[in-house]
């Protein structure tokens, strides 16, 4: 099977942001293969959108791409995921060595306990090693 990439335009980097925001991981994956697409434009806006909306598969793609900085803008992706109650996204971000809970991201714990109150997030967290384990990961040593 041959996949034909569309001719990309000056909008290349703007196209990845809405794909990330809406969780279209297949489109994000395809865009990441093109050299003209830079997922880190606008201070890593695409990963912020994916984190804010809890799109785990898109987050995995971005975290695997060395051009993306998940800690950009004072850990905003972590803060947004926490604020919106996306516990699995928070856990995924914390598993990346570039994200440091001590580097201004204490906010992710302090501002909202949403990560631990939304039913879906609680279920996801307990299935992946327990809610208590997630809390321990978020607490500074």
Automatic annotation (TrEMBL):
SMART domains listed in its UniProt record = ANK (SM00248)
- Keywords in alphabetical order, please: ANK repeat, Repeat
Query: What InterPro entries does the record point to?
Result: Ankyrin_rpt, Ankyrin_rpt-contain_sf
Signal sequence interval, chain numbering: none
Q: Which Pfam families match?
A: Ank_2
Gene3D superfamilies listed in its UniProt record:
Ankyrin repeat-containing domain (1.25.40.20)
What is the protein name for this chain?
Putative ankyrin
- Source species of the chain: Planoprotostelium fungivorum
């Amino acid at each position: 099977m041959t996949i034909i990439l569309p001719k990309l335009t000056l909008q290349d980097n703007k196209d990845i942001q809405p794909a990330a925001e809406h969780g279209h991981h297949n489109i994000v994956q395809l865009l990441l293969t093109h050299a003209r697409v830079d997922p880190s434009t606008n201070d890593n806006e695409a990963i912020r959108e994916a984190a804010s909306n809890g799109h785990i598969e898109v987050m995995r793609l971005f975290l695997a791409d060395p051009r993306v900085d998940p800690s950009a803008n004072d850990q905003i992706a972590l803060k947004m995921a926490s604020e919106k109650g996306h516990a699995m996204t928070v856990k995924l971000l914390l598993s990346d060595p570039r994200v440091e809970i001590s580097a201004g991201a204490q906010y992710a714990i302090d501002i909202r306990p949403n990560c631990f109150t939304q039913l879906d997030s609680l279920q996801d967290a307990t299935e992946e090693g327990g809610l208590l384990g997630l809390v321990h990961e978020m607490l500074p040593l």
